[in-house]
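lol ok so funny story. i was supposed to be doing the assay writeup but got distracted and ended up predicting the structure for this chain instead. priorities right. anyway since i did it might as well share w the group, maybe its usefull for someone
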Amino acid sequence: AAIFADGYSANRHRKRGGAEMIKVLVIDDQRIAREYMENVVHSGKDYELVGSLSQADLAATVCRRNAVDLVLMDVCTHGTKDGIAAAAELHRLFPKMKIIVVTSMPEESFIKRAKEAGADSFWHKEVSPEELITVMDATMQGRHIWPGESPTVKLGISNSKELTDAQIKVL
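and the output, tada:
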């Protein structure tokens, strides 16, 4: 049964063309971003959405119940864990499962922390040159997609490269 942030559950076990579907869990605290990722999963011919959460704390439980193959994990989530800490836990518990860390924040330390946590790829929501489905396909084929550096993001009259790490963290 699929598990969604609003508590809705549904059985969605299916095959397309006789092939097993890649089971995906989406975790993002922002409803619109979560729904976007859900739509990307639904649009992919090889993917099945088995859950969508706003809290990273629940990820391990959903992964255990649904044999998840791929997690799309936002860095900032509701609950007691951030997405990178949850990704580290998932990597430890399910070493064969693929994890793509996603964010809209221009924080360079996120990339380093995600690599250290065992994530397979990293995707910037607003500015990555690759489409999310492309990153998902590449990651499931065993490739790793990592940005060379954090993108420059316009923040009012400044941009993210002009701010200190502490200032960006406050934002």
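Residues 31-43 form the longest helix (13 residues). The mean pLDDT is 83.
back to the writeup now i swear
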